Predict the 3D structure of the following.
Amino acid sequence: MFSENTKKAGCIEVICGSMFSGKTEELIRRIRRAKFANLKIEIFKPTIDTRFSDEDVVSHDFHKIPCHAVKDPKEMLKIADDVQVVGIDEAQFYDMSLVDVAQELANRGIRVIIAGLDMDYLGKPFGPMPYLMAIAEDVRKVHAICVKCGALANYSHRLVNDDELVVLGEKEAYEPLCRDCFNKAMEKQDNPEYSGD
Ligand code: ZN
């Protein structure tokens, strides 16, 4: 895809966006195509993400593919010893060591496809994601639809009051918002008197 180099096909691809933007669906689409090509594949996700299932990467449209739940990214180096493609879902929950692990996997000649939230609920870059985006050969931002105005949504606005960085949940905990609606919602949260909506 990226060069005529036939020695090593290693590369890093990042798929990122807000909640409900279709990141995992896009990861699964790429993994399926690799499966059709009979490539050897391993898929990982952090152990922290226990939604629905311990063994599957599960997307919101219930397409699922088997994967390893792995706490420390370094475990991927051992498990993905003899594969051509590695998929990593919910990468924002890993620590910074994922950046070196992704590099090492790609340097081995592996195509590394990483999906994750680019921003946390405050609109700040999330965990290792900005670094992964910097070292990737290819970055795809996918978008949800703003539930307030219908524009493309970049932000995952948290609907529950909780200062924890990691709150797992589905529609009841987050809503996708565009820049303008996110800024208004955050301003409203900071000043309950605010009436500029
Ligand atoms: Zn909006």
Remarks:
- The first strand starts at residue 11 and ends at 17.
- Helices lie at 23-36, 74-79, 97-107, 129-135, 179-190.
- Residues 146, 148-149, 151, 177-178, 180-181 surround zinc ion (CB under 6 Å).
